[in-house]
Specification:
Helix content: 40-55%
Strand content: 15-25%
Low-confidence stretches: 394-415, 543-562
Radius of gyration: 52 Å
Number of strands: 27
Shape: rod-shaped
Bound molecules: ligand C2E, magnesium ion
Mean pLDDT: 87
Oligomer: single chain
Distance between the termini: 146 Å
Amino acid sequence: MSLRLSVVLVEDNVDDAMLLLRELKRGGYELTCERVETASEMKAALDRQHWDLILADYALPQFSAPHALEIALERGLDCPFIIVSGQIGEDAAIAAMKAGAHDYIMKNQLARLVPAIERELREAAGRRSRSVAEVALRASERQLRALFESALDAMAIFNDDRQFVSVNPAACTLLGLSNQELIGRSIVEFIESPCDLEQALSNFYAQSRATGELKILRSDGTMRDVEYSATANFIPGLHLSVLHDITERKQAEEQLLYNAFYDPLTGLPNKAWFLNCLGRSLRHAKRRANYLFAVLFLDLDRFGIVKYSFGHLVADRLLSATARRLGTCLGPKDTLARVGTDEFAILIDNIHQIADATAVADKIHKELTLPFEINGHEMFSTASIGVAVGSSNASASPSPPDEHGDRLWDYSATNTLNQPEDYLRAADTAMYHAKAMGGGRTALFEPDMHAGALAMLQLETDLRRALKREELQLYYQPIVKLSTGQISGFEALIRWRHPTRGLVCPGEFIPIAEGTGLIVPMGAWVLEEAARQLRQWHAQLPSGAIANSPLPWEDAPLSSASTLLTMSVNLAGVQFAHPGLLEHIDGILQQSGIPGETLKLEITETAIMAAAESATALLLQLKEQQIQLCIDDFGTGYSSLSRLQRLPIDTLKIDKSFVSRMSMESESLEIVRTCVDLAHNLGMDVVAEGVETPEQLAGLRALKCEYGQGYFFSKPLDAKAATALLASNPQW
Ligand code: C2E
Ligand code: MG
Ligand code: MG
């Protein structure tokens, strides 16, 4: 196959030109040729088209090879330029070669022509492709530089001495230093305590690549998190690292993690975290012999009252303050978490005996007796604590009491507690027992408590229905004026006619009702029902059911409202603190038409003290309605006498525990005497609860106690029996 070749022939001699062309054809070329004799002809030829080859005679009448070469070079032509001459001297030939000619051939050696052309064409092609590659290389260098300079990620090149050799603007921003400041500095200065930098670097060189996360220490001392990828020896001795700042993402992740495992109010771990820790302890217990740990479940008593009386803000502060105080009772290895609104859980790991756990509980109770000062309010918050102990011992029954008298139940043997949740629930169940015993105390979990807890749960469900199904009923117990021996009023006491369990006493279900908030609608019903009954008695017994007269009640004067039969109604703490109580009582007074002074509200001292200042305002408002106020179970709580004095209380009701022991213990007699004196000094009258014997009655009369209530006079009676009792006008 013949090769195409376009040739400019600088030649004045036509024969010589023909000779050359024949030689080329013989070499297998298919030719396009133009013969020129002058510079202008050559320029015109070059303008016309692209040429593969220029063959030039050295000297022409009006032109010359060096001149032709000049023209070709001016135009940047890179095609082979070969001088073909009859008589070129060596000096001229060398000068021409230096000027850029590619070869020269004597006309009498034309056999060299084709091989020389072939070689020069090859070299020209090589030159052309080299220059294309060079251009491409320069372009890609520029591209890379632009990428390097404008990249959002930091890029840094460092050498074998770990010094920065080149950094891009993003790297300067990341590290907080200028280009000049960074070049030559060691990369190690900016890496925050990598676990083992030397090891990491030698791995990097060995594997040529490394990726991962790092903490970068900026020049201003702040820290950034980066994701990096590095290539070793991308040019021998130079290493490239690309760093992507992930500080914001990390912070967001940490926040998410925090939210998942921490309680924002107290800053304590939450239930999920606690269960995690508990799981770890459980695994330890399974592996190690004689390993003991304890879970304490703590619930604030009467937290609802605080919330209703002071609002959420104060309640939240109380929770935070409690959390801090709990922290002071614990060791550095104990875990404290907030697991419910007012519920905290504590994990005490690796204890020696149960007493170690109860000692912590005791410490907490003691700490909580100190008042909290929150927003200028002084408040107390006792807590009920349940304790469940986990161990690795495998005895199937409770162990014999240890030196502290503790028995260790092996829950795992009875298979009731396996999961972390089981332990938390067990401690919660025990806490419930502590609460049912009156709060402010600790109870240890025992396996049969579960049954109790289930029964309690059932009771709660039943209680919700009881209100709707009208299973609740009021009993009435007379309160006797001791100077006359006659009934002056009644106390309304709630009963529950349970469909299967029969009559249930309030001690069993009031704590549940308080705990679940059911007490609010239940208490509202009690108030309405008691007021309705009192109204009925007032109406049925037109004389006003007078019990204040030494005369039989039928003959008593009709006029004085102060002689009207009274009705005492118990108010639970939550109810007392519930907003809307005042409006509700107003409504009841209006609807029933009973005078305010015939309604007595009994509130325990604990409830009053827990509600603190806000209680005073409420009591004053109740007093404006002439409603009588009575402190129930006096002597069992922790009243501050100075506060008591400031409260508009009409009556102190001495707890039956003191009255019942009056005749046996002189100490109890003294307590009753003190209470009576105290009440009188504060301008209050006194009701003694739990009067069971004639001796107690005589004693109380001697102490000038105004009223008595107790089985000696009558047990609580249903409405019908109470009405009959009233009608019989008894006198003691
Ligand atoms: P409380 O208000 O101190 O009521 C007096 C309790 O003592 C009553 O028990 C009564 O039956 C009992 N009692 C009266 N006399 C004697 C006696 O001579 N000897 C003995 N051993 N006990 C006597 P009950 O009815 O079981 O009520 C227990 C508590 O339940 C009440 O104590 C009160 O705190 C609460 N409760 C009763 N009804 C209601 C109610 O409607 N609302 C609220 N919030 N609590 C109520
Ligand atoms: Mg009472
Ligand atoms: Mg009482």
